[in-house]
Amino acid sequence: MADAEVHRRETLARQRREWETETALNAVMSDPEVQRLKEEIEELEASLARDLSPTLRRFEERYDRAVQDANLDVLSRSCPGKHGRWGRICVLDAGHQAEYPRLGTNPEGQPVAWLGSAPDED
Ligand SMILES: [Zn+2]
After folding, report:
1. How far, in Å, from the CA of 31 to the mean position of ligand 1?
2. Less Cβ around it within 10 Å: N or C end of the chain?
3. Which residues pair with residue 113 across a beta bridge?
4. How far is the CA of 39 from the centre of ligand 1 (A)?
């Protein structure tokens, strides 16, 4: 079989897998119970962030300043906790997990605090 045919079949198989995955995710995410749980989790994360706002504000300002000044010393000591796909970066220092949940902002710039890790966290 020619390389071009092998490549075409691999491309079609990959596109099929992507379509199936996207279709399954859309079906799950459109479920009303999943939507209700998503909203409940978002409210809990916002509520937790409000409870911790004095701490969040100080660390958030430090993180924003470090990004603005390209302060690699501060940034290198930052928590590796990220929810990159959700637009979140934890602004606390590495190793804080025993004391606080992760703290950061959501893509809309609102404070959020969250527990646990995410698949894209490394
Ligand atoms: Zn963190």
Report:
1. 31
2. N
3. 103
4. 22
The structure tokens listed for 20 are: 């199936």
SS (H, E, C) the chain: CCHHHHHHHHHHHHHHHHHHHHHHHHHHHCCHHHHHHHHHHHHHHHHHHHHCHHHHHHHHHHHHHHHHHCCHHHHHCECCCEEHHHCEECCCECCHHHCCCEEEECCCCCEEEECCCCCCCC
From ligand 1's centre to the CA of 9, what distance in Å? Answer: 43
pTM of the model: 0.65
pLDDT tens-digit profile of 14-60? 999 999 999 999 999 999 999 999 999 989 999 999 998 887 788 88
Q: How far apart are the CA of 94 and the centre of ligand 1, in A? A: 6
Report the 10 Å Cβ neighbour count for 14: 10
